[in-house]
Amino acid sequence: MTGGIPDKLYLRIGEVSAITGLPASVLRYWESEFGSLAPKKSSTGQRLYTKKDIEQIAEIKQLLYAEKLTIEGARKRLAVKKRQQKPEQPTEKLSTIIEDVKVELKNLRDLL
After folding, report:
1. Whose C-alpha in 9, 18, 80, 109 is 20 to 30 A from the C-alpha of 39?
2. In the chain, how long is the greatest CA-to-CA distance?
């Protein structure tokens, strides 16, 4: 990527193009080829990319340009990576917080 990601919630396609060094037409094409790359659209139809979208674009760019994979090969690699990622399990800290909230709610109920 040619520059850092600005601290904004959404970026338009021109900004993403400048950050990634990819033409807007390539970004639009990749949307049709990679189903997981689907930026939101504004009420006027402009594409609004998040930082997560930009990270995925960078990963696709790496697979296609640096590793010289085909689009099909990149799709398969992304699918394997997605399958290998395990869903996040609640941590003990979160479980403890939930239990504390339950106790507090029961205490409040008893006060009523």
Report:
1. 80
2. 67
Is the CB of residue 60 less than 8 Å from the CB of residue 29? no
pTM assigned to the model: 0.70
Residue 45: which region, alpha, beta or left (left: phi > 0; alpha: psi -120 to 50)? left
- Contact of 5 with 54, CB cutoff 8 Å: yes
Return the residue matching tokens 């290998």. 84
101-107 contacts, C-beta under 8 A, 24 or more apart:
none
How many C-beta atoms surround the C-beta of residue 63 within 10 A?
19
